[in-house]
């Protein structure tokens, strides 16, 4: 029998920012609402509501995905990372965050959570991406403010910092 | 003043003040706010472009679970004093009264415990409409047989204008405002060697700010209200709210946290009146958050038709220009009169003429209301003007760059009689972008393609008209600095730049400056975050406030130390007196007592009123954007390949170089989108690409092969340390520079935006006969 | 033709959905049983489903088909290249079987974005039946068929028929099949987006060209290998135009690209 929930109630167990998490929710709940409204993780921004702009991108098993267009039940057993889980527990910024901050690779900041997660996913699989690869990845999300050039440069800076390791 | 000393913070590569909050996701926007007991508002929108509202039945909706209030336009009388709003003309109803004027016009509003309940209730509202003929565009609206969109003329005002400028409300049917400007004598046309008439059309974009239109409004016991909103001009909004509800402004608190983009859209009433009505009805906080699709139905750029008649001597000397601009204002006036004023005023561009005369009319159509949009009339004007300059140069057999150089208004020369002097050397900027794109290099192209290069200069008066700005700087005993001003952090970096100014003047580390949350009850007055005005207008107010505090501190220390204030310096909240260092905290407590003190400095800036100036004040500064484009055109398909786009702005002095760069590059890419593909597509009066998938905005993959922004610091700005405003200038010249390069490549002139392959190919085919 | 959001529905969000029964079938027959039992809606990658929700879709139940192994993967047999409807764009492009159709992997790798390619499925792209989605264009050119299954019925239909077909009795797209006879190869031109795209398949001595725009369902034309590009394009129906592009331009520019694509495939052959 393939029925998982008859009345729409269900429990979802997943890893959220490195912690085992179980939530009681409903089948109609989308991940962005679960994160923002039920768990108060407001760093995931919602804009277009139809997967296009990518402002709500979170990493699911390390890959960016629009949380506005993902049901909560889909992350059962999976690893979810939001912007809140990017910095180290002691508050040290991730190299991608540090590069975005240093490069002013943001303006209004509304796309920034998604862009940083996108860049993290890119650099996890491409430690030394060329410009074309960075542009291909960054083209997944919309930034209406920067003209993208500073974002591309921040990703390049982050890649260099990650390859060279922490500064002594 | 410490201007002579080397700068420690201004112009240095400091981290933006909002960097940590934004890269960690901790930044909070209005959309993130929730209050206990909060209700959610949703509105019913008209599916008709133009119709009489015969009846609205809300009974079934009101009976739905979770629904706390339902209202319609005619029922508003119980809750508001004035059911309409608008900038110059009060024509936009909070909810439709007896007529809807565009598809998406708001008809009824619901507040419910959840958004889902509100939407479910909307579905049960029954509206009977009687369709009326729609007016999808300027031509339709001006047709003699067109119905009158406002049979009863809404009230409005014309602001005072100075030398040569005037305006009229409702000059003819479906035209809500006409602005005129004239200088010099039209008779000079008679001695021109050539007079050229050309017509251009400008497309229409959506702002696509990523944070939606959203507010949380709370009408509290005792008629005290708080509105937290994603808004660019909280003080004018407060004034409008006070008028709508006939309430003292002192009872209204408008608060603005971080704003997730606006580009002009978030000026004046959007979500706020409806949320307030529903809160007043229910006694509970009400959140009204629109979707992006609703954003498309709320505010847009102005499409335009621009007719230019330009008289010129055979050697390329410009003599006279007459312009007639028609703006598609959509269904309500919104900011159209202001945009008309700017488009009409700016249309002669950065050149010297003996005579200019322009008329700009706001034409109402049954489409989404058009309002402020980055560039504010300057985009439309520059498109036509910079296209025609190139066309004239080519007709006269002159190099377009040479012709521009011949006619540019010089540095410090008043742009028009009564105006301030232009504060950039425009030839210098033009040379920079020309060099960057290899303007004079051979035009090599792939087989079947033709190479071309084009230039353009975007030119606008900057800093706004009638913009008073006030700021307050407070420093407590320990040296903690509070900066209070009404500039909204919308992404432009205002918090950082203004804090840098304060830190520089007070000799303090940047981290000591806290930019306090904006609340109209406590924050000093500001006209709004627009017109690239923050650093030049508010910047001067902030500068004065900081200088005031510094002077007070130095004066206190001088008296305490028995010396002259001029002998003292303030550094890191320590008084330096020769080789002595006197920490301030103990000194302050010694003087004022153990609980300490707080130094408060106020600053104010407003450009002086001046009836000799056409817009009643001289322009605060001049915002110039230069663009150069190197491209190839496929002669068989009309496809355009941009090899290089170079833009440049003059920051006067860059307070923060990366922030300036981001503004210039973001503006340029918006211009690139407008030039090549981005547009709202209408089928009659119906917008057919009003959502993110079908509405294409520039992505990183749309970047040209080479995209360069050159930040100039010519040093002539009136702002702190010589700064000028940034952020709009480089959007203006991009579309005409591309059109100019296309003509350079394939010899055809495209007069309509966007510059689609179809338009280019059709012109090539037509030219081949 | 225009899927613009209705002014009455622009305020909808997924929060409007009521909690509903959720099925997670592991076989096609379980999925069909769940569909029959619940009258629900099939849910796979999610990209297009939510666009539907935003514009009024309100499912009675969700049939989440992600776990149906038989709807994934690629195989080749004597009937052609079979691809499961649940393959994401990334998975499809990475499948070595795709090399059986030169040009297909390259074309497929260009559609959508890095993020979407990881999430969106072949089935979702086709079943959305939105004009600007590109798999319909590529697969129509390749003469692919869609295997539609229902409780009592199974139909293989040309993918271009999906636009108009009544799928009441066969609601589930299980897989598609690209016939491999006569060594098909594909060229795809999408540099003119958002104006138009053009796919061309050469199969033995035959050509099939597909033209599509943001708002028009793909139009295709079969012709012999030596056909004249201009003549092929002049077959575009009189009403093949939209508010962003005229028919005359599509014929004119389409002919040029077609000529180029024919040459490209000639080189490939």
Automatic annotation (TrEMBL), chain A:
It holds the Pfam family Fer2. Residues 10-86 form the 2Fe-2S ferredoxin-type domain. Keywords: 2Fe-2S, Iron, Iron-sulfur, Metal-binding. GO terms for molecular function: 2 iron, 2 sulfur cluster binding; metal ion binding; oxidoreductase activity. InterPro entries: 2Fe-2S-bd, 2Fe-2S-bd_dom_sf, 2Fe-2S_ferredoxin-like_sf, 2Fe-2S_ferredoxin-type, Beta-grasp_dom_sf, Diverse_Oxidoreductases. This is (2Fe-2S)-binding protein. The lineage of its organism: Bacteria, Pseudomonadati, Pseudomonadota, Alphaproteobacteria, Rhodobacterales.
Automatic annotation (TrEMBL), chain B:
Residues 24-133 form the Aldehyde oxidase/xanthine dehydrogenase a/b hammerhead domain. GO terms for molecular function: iron ion binding; oxidoreductase activity. SMART domains: Ald_Xan_dh_C. InterPro entries: Ald_Oxase/Xan_DH_a/b, Ald_Oxase/Xan_DH_a/b_sf, Ald_Oxase/xanthine_DH-like, AldOxase/xan_DH_MoCoBD1, AldOxase/xan_DH_MoCoBD2, AldOxase/xan_DH_Mopterin-bd_sf. Pfam families: Ald_Xan_dh_C, MoCoBD_1, MoCoBD_2. SUPFAM superfamilies: CO dehydrogenase molybdoprotein N-domain-like (SSF54665), Molybdenum cofactor-binding domain (SSF56003). It comes from the Bacteria. Signal peptide: none annotated. This is Xanthine dehydrogenase family protein molybdopterin-binding subunit. It comes from Pseudooceanicola sediminis.
TrEMBL record, chain C:
One of its GO terms (molecular function) is oxidoreductase activity. It comes from the Bacteria. Gene3D superfamilies: 3.30.465.10, Uridine Diphospho-n-acetylenolpyruvylglucosamine Reductase, domain 2. The keyword Lipid biosynthesis does not apply. PROSITE patterns: FAD_PCMH (PS51387). Residues 15-183 form the FAD-binding PCMH-type domain. Keywords: FAD, Flavoprotein, Oxidoreductase. The keyword Cell inner membrane does not apply. This is FAD-binding PCMH-type domain-containing protein.
């Amino acid at each position: 029998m393939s029925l998982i929930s008859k009345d729409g109630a269900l429990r979802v167990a997943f890893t959220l920012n490195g912690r085992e998490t179980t939530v009681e929710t409903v089948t109609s709940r989308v991940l962005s609402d679960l994160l923002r409204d039920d768990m108060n993780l407001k760093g995931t921004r919602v804009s277009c509501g139809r997967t296009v702009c990518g402002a709500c991108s979170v990493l699911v098993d390390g890959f960016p995905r629009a949380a506005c267009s993902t049901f909560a039940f889909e992350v059962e057993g999976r690893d979810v990372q939001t912007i809140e889980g990017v910095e180290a527990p002691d508050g040290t910024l991730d190299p991608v965050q540090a590069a975005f901050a240093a490069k002013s690779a943001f303006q209004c900041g509304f796309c920034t959570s998604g862009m940083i997660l996108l860049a993290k996913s890119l650099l996890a699989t491409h430690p030394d991406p060329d410009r074309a690869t960075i542009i291909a990845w960054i083209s997944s999300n919309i930034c209406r403010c920067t003209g993208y050039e500073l974002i591309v440069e921040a990703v390049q800076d982050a890649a260099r910092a990650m390859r060279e390791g922490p500064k002594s | 003043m410490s201007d002579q000393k080397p700068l420690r913070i201004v112009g240095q590569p400091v981290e933006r003040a909002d960097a940590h909050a934004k890269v960690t996701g901790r930044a909070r926007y209005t959309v993130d706010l929730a209050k206990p007991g909060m209700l959610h508002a949703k509105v019913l929108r008209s599916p008709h472009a133009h119709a009489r509202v015969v009846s609205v039945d809300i009974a079934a909706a009101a009976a739905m679970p979770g629904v706390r209030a339902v209202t319609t336009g005619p029922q508003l009388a119980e809750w508001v004093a004035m059911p309409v709003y608008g900038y110059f003309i009060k024509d936009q109803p909070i909810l439709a009264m007896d007529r809807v004027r565009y598809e998406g016009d708001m008809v009824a509003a619901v507040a419910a415990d959840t958004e889902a309940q509100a939407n479910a209730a909307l579905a049960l509202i029954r509206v009977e409409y009687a369709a009326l003929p729609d007016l999808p565009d300027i031509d339709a609206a001006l047709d003699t047989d067109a119905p009158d969109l406002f049979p009863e003329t809404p009230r409005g005002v014309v602001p005072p204008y100075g030398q040569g400028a005037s305006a009229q409300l409702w000059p003819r049917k479906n035209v809500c405002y006409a602005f005129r400007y004239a200088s010099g004598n039209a008779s000079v046309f008679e001695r021109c060697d050539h007079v050229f008439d050309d017509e251009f059309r400008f497309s229409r974009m959506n702002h696509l700010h990523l944070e939606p239109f959203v507010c949380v409004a709370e009408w509290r016991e005792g008629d005290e209200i708080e509105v937290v909103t994603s808004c660019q001009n909280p003080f004018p909004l407060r004034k409008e709210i006070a008028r709508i509800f006939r309430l003292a402004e002192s009872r209204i608190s408008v608060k603005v946290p971080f704003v997730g983009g606006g580009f002009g859209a978030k000026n004046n009433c959007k979500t706020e009146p409806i949320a307030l009505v529903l809160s007043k009805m229910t006694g509970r906080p009400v959140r009204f958050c629109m979707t992006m699709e609703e954003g498309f139905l709320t505010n847009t750029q102005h499409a335009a038709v621009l007719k230019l008649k330009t008289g010129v001597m055979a050697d390329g000397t410009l003599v006279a220009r007459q312009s007639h601009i028609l703006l598609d204002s959509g269904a309500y006036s919104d900011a159209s009169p202001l945009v008309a004023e700017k488009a009409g005023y700016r249309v002669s561009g950065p050149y010297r003429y003996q005579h200019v005369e322009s008329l700009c009319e706001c034409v109402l159509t049954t489409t989404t209301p058009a309002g402020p949009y980055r560039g504010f009339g300057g985009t439309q004007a520059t498109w036509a003007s910079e296209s025609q300059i190139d066309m004239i140069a080519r007709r006269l057999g002159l190099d377009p760059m040479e012709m521009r150089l011949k006619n540019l208004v010089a540095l410090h020369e008043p742009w028009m009689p009564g105006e301030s002097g232009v504060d950039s050397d425009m030839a210098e900027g033009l040379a920079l972008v020309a060099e960057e794109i290899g303007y004079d290099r051979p035009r090599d192209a792939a087989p079947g393609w033709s190479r071309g290069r084009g230039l353009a200069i975007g030119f606008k008066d900057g800093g706004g008209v009638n913009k008073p700005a006030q700021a307050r700087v407070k420093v407590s005993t320990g040296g903690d600095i509070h900066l209070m001003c009404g500039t909204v952090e919308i992404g432009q970096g205002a918090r950082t730049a203004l804090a840098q100014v304060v830190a520089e003047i007070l000799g303090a580390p940047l981290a000591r400056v806290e930019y306090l949350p904006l609340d109209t009850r406590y924050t000093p007055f500001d006209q709004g975050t627009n017109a690239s005005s923050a650093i030049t207008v508010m910047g001067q107010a902030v500068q004065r406030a900081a200088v005031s505090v510094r002077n007070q501190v130095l004066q206190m220390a001088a008296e305490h130390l028995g010396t002259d204030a001029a002998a003292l310096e303030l550094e890191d909240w320590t008084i330096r007196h020769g080789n002595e260092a006197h920490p301030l905290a103990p000194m302050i407590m010694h003087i004022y007592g153990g609980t300490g003190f707080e130094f408060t400095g106020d600053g104010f800036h407003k450009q002086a009123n001046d009836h000799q100036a056409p817009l009643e004040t001289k322009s605060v500064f001049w915002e110039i954007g230069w663009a150069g484009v190197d491209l190839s055109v496929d002669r068989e398909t009309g496809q355009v390949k941009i090899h290089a786009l170079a833009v440049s702005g003059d920051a006067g002095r860059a307070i923060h170089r990366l922030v300036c760069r981001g503004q210039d590059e973001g503006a340029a890419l918006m211009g690139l989108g407008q030039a090549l593909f981005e547009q709202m597509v209408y089928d009659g009066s119906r917008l057919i690409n009003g959502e993110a998938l079908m509405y294409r905005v520039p992505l990183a993959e749309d970047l040209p092969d080479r995209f360069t922004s050159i930040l100039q610091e010519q040093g002539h700005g009136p702002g702190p340390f010589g700064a000028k405003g940034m952020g709009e200038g480089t959007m203006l010249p991009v579309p005409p520079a591309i059109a100019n390069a296309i003509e350079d490549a394939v010899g055809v002139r495209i007069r309509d935006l966007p510059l689609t392959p179809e338009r280019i190919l059709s012109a090539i085919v037509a030219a081949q006969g | 033709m225009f899927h613009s959001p209705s002014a009455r529905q622009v305020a909808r969000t997924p929060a409007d959905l009521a909690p509903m029964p959720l099925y997670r079938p592991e076989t096609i027959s379980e999925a069909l049983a769940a569909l029959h039992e619940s009258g629900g809606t099939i849910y796979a990658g999610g990209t297009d489903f939510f666009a539907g929700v935003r514009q009024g879709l309100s499912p009675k139940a969700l049939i989440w088909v992600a776990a149906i192994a038989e709807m994934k993967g690629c195989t080749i047999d004597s009937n052609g290249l079979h691809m499961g409807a649940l393959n994401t764009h990334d998975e499809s492009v990475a499948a070595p079987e795709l090399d059986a159709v030169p040009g297909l992997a390259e074309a497929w790798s260009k559609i959508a974005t890095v993020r979407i390619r990881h999430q969106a499925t072949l089935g979702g792209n086709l079943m959305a039946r939105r004009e600007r989605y590109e798999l319909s264009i590529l697969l129509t050119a390749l003469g692919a068929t869609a295997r539609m299954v229902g409780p009592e019925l199974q139909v293989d239909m040309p993918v271009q028929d999906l636009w108009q077909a009544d799928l009441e009795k066969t609601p589930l797209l299980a897989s598609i099949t690209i016939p491999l006879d006569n060594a098909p190869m594909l060229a795809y031109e999408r540099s003119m987006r958002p104006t138009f795209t053009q796919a061309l398949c050469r199969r033995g001595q035959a050509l099939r060209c597909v033209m599509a725009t943001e708002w028009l369902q793909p139009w295709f034309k079969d012709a012999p290998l030596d056909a004249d590009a201009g003549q092929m394009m002049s077959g575009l129906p009189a009403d093949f135009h939209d508010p962003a592009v005229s028919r005359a331009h599509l014929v004119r520019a389409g002919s040029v690209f077609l000529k180029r694509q024919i040459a490209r495939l000639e080189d490939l052959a």
